[in-house]
Amino acid sequence: MGSFACEIVEEKDDEVRLPKHSGRYGKSVMGSSSKDLERKQREYHGSLEYDIDKLFQSISVKPSTRLMSSSFHNHETSASAGPSRTTSPSKRIASIKKPGTPQSPRFVGLSDSVSLKQALRDRCISKASEMAAQKRLSKSAAASPRVSEADRIKSLYNQVSNESTSGRSGLVPVDKGKGSLVEIPLLPVNNKPSSSKSVSQRFEEHSNPISEPSQAGTSLGSQGVGNQTREIKLLHKSNKSGSCLSSGSGDYEIELDENVALPSTDAFVEDDVMEIDKHVTSLPSHSSKKVNGTELDKNILSSALDAEQKGKLDDAPSSGTEKSKTVRKVTRMIPRPKQPKKKILLKKKLKIGVVSATYPTKDDEEHVPSLDSSAHQLLCQRCHCSLKSTSIDNHPPSYTTSHNPEICTDSLSSASNNVGKEARQLSDENSSGSCNVSQSSEAEIVIMKQDVSSSNNSGISAMVEKETGNPTSSEKFEFSLSSKDSLGDYSRSTSMSEESNLSRFSCGNKPHMSMDVRWEAIKHVKVQYGSLGLRHFNLLKKLGCGDIGTVYLAELIGTNCLFAIKVMDNEFLARRKKSPRAQAEREILKMLDHPFLPTLYAQFTSDNLSCLVMEYCPGGDLHVLRQKQLGRCFPEPAARFYVAEILLALEYLHMLGIIYRDLKPENILVREDGHIMLTDFDLSLRCAVNPTLLRSNSPPGKDPARISGPYNTSNCIQPFCIIEPSCQVSCFSPRLSSNQQQGRKPKRGDHLSKTQQHLNRSLPQLVAEPTEARSNSFVGTHEYLAPEIIKGEGHGAAVDWWTFGVLLYELLYGKTPFKGYNNDETLANVVLQNLKFPDSPLVSFQAKDLIRGLLVKEPENRLGSEKGSVEIKRHPFFEGLNWALIRCAIPPELPDFYEYGGGPEGAADLPGGSNNRYLECKAIGDHLEFELF
Ligand SMILES: Nc1ncnc2c1ncn2[C@@H]1O[C@H](COP(=O)(O)OP(=O)(O)OP(=O)(O)O)[C@@H](O)[C@H]1O
């Protein structure tokens, strides 16, 4: 820009200004055609150069006493003196009146006789004033160092508007009707003030945010040379592509929106600016609604988080890569450096984003790598819980500071499931008698306790502690007609928040079933349809009816995956006051992760029907299987196999603080692989459990001293520490004194051989038996009810060991031990009758001895009442059994297979025969019509 700008503006586009000769004081113009030449000559005659030439020629220099006034009028008057002077000057005057262009303080009237010196001086003054005006203009753009980016943009816009109005800037309206497209010439960068970037540069940067900032500058420079023009549409549609673009331009545009005072004199430019403004404000939220900086920042953050989550969803293992990709996007979103306003915006981000502590505040371009790492840190911080849960070796899990409930829920549930997994491992591995296993098991149990209790959510521990705090609940006494029907008339003393457990124990992360394709199938449907409902299943057959619901075999539509869906009518449950039972079952199922316990794949409510999607067991139940046996009873090895697996399942449940209370063959299902699955938890009781480690290095001849205690008095605050022998005492304070041990009555299990006892003593013993739990509910099945339940004295975990004894008896003898002619007699027998063994079939002494130990009427003397499964597993009946590998053992028999993967009843049970593959319950949306009960 120079003092000639105004003159150039007046020229037509096709005019070419060429120096005729390089005179000292002026230039000549030369047209390209004769017409032009003529015109230019005419103009030359009225030009300063002409005057000077004339002056030189005449030499008749008259000193002018009359200085041409700056008054326009005077010029006009003087101009009228000669025709040759009337056109050109007036043209100039007209051009100088152009808005924003300063007028010369004085005009040199060429018709007057003036001295050469005066004429030149006036001319210089005129030029100088023009230059000063231009400088003022550009100063307002470059301005002070504190000027905002928006101010600079505004100034540039003013310049552009001036130039565009004059029609020479190159900012040419292309088609205003289409939305004010403008062509902006990409001028060489060095033609522009160094303090601020050109408009074209800025818009180029906005329109091409994917380029790295430095690249953008380079390309601009190269493209700009040669006055190449490039169409940049300043419309929001031009920038629609890519969230990073929208976010990237956000900061600038917010400032523009807030600060730009649009020139009111130029409607064209105003339109453009407004369009830019619209574009800007619409970008972050993808709506035309304006957003403030805070919202924008939120949007930016959420975009980043969304992207990160997506990455996480897509492929968990590659999340690191995804994160870094996202970080790069975030980097691009960050506006360019050295803009004070931007800093303010970034500060806003700091405030808004819980996780934005590492956002850069300056020099983003220069610190792209560090920004990446910062942002990576940001993301890591965002995934705090996940990371914690995966790096638990060194840090205790902390689940309280999360900004993303969804992620933290996942993490939490993952951690909780890890606990479940560890407990399961403990359950399985501890039984192997390995010292190391026991030690690590102890640690894992501690985790469970601390993990659960440390959560703000009402965890298991908190919940069960509530329950144990009030163990006696109001009860009703009600019997059902069948001796094998479960009695579940009880009311719970406490009700748990469903949400708490929902979030804690997601059914989507069961380590022992993590490779199961059914997870993927369910997940796929959820992703595809947003949610899972009954409409996504074909109900193939009714598997059975229980007290609170009906179980169907169901196929997930479009997959070959079979599930057992327990459907419960919420209204029905509420009417019968059985909702707490359904809730208890649901909550327990969510907690479970064990090979001998059901896997809950999903749960949903459809049309007032609560549905639990579980693993399908095609082998039927042990009751049915026993009926099929010769003599309707299992051979002892088979019985031993089944009860051993049941024992592990019960052990796991007790470790989780779940007293099962409804053990019977009907609730033991046979899996496809012949192993068992304990089902039906609606009568289970949740309670507190104190994990206890028994010292392994007790002196021979003495009972292992118990060194146990509440987890919260433990000195060991590191839940994932590997418990070394020296650490054992510090982690668990003594619970029972040796005097208490010595003072107790002898139990049935005490008759174990010296070798066995010595062996047992040499191993550390983990006891995770809920010995303190008490309930007065009358629950269970008549033939399986423990005496303490019938007597209403209150009961605890020992009821499970009673039912365990009854189960073993039934499997071996084909009938329960105290069965009477009716339920009342059965109950009386349970309380009063001594245990008797039939002569046939022949059963081993060890089996009978175990049964005797379990069916002790006083719960405190019952085998298992003190140390739980540990005592029972040591019984000679299980001698030689590898507890850790039982899940890999070959089961006594594999289930027969029918249609749908097998089943006890087969396809013949389907209504309408095998042609009618589906049940009568056609799903119309989520509405099902079928008999539930
Ligand atoms: N996962 C499963 N796989 C195969 N069959 C199942 C499954 N779950 C339940 N069943 C069948 O459905 C029947 C009904 O089960 P449900 O648990 O509702 O009732 P229940 O055991 O009779 O108990 P309750 O009345 O105590 O609730 C069971 O007897 C069993 O045969």
UniProtKB/TrEMBL annotation:
Record-level Gene Ontology MF annotations: ATP binding; protein kinase binding; protein serine/threonine kinase activity
Bias (Polar residues) ranges: 70-90, 208-226
Low complexity biased stretches: 188-200
Region (Disordered): 18-38, 70-109, 186-226, 307-329, 414-436, 464-495
InterPro entries listed in its UniProt record: Kinase-like_dom_sf (IPR011009), Prot_kinase_dom (IPR000719), Ser/Thr_kinase_AS (IPR008271)
CDD domains: STKc_phototropin_like (cd05574)
PANTHER family to which the protein is assigned, alphabetical: FLIPPASE KINASE 1-RELATED
Protein name: non-specific serine/threonine protein kinase
Organism in which the protein naturally occurs: Arabidopsis lyrata subsp. lyrata
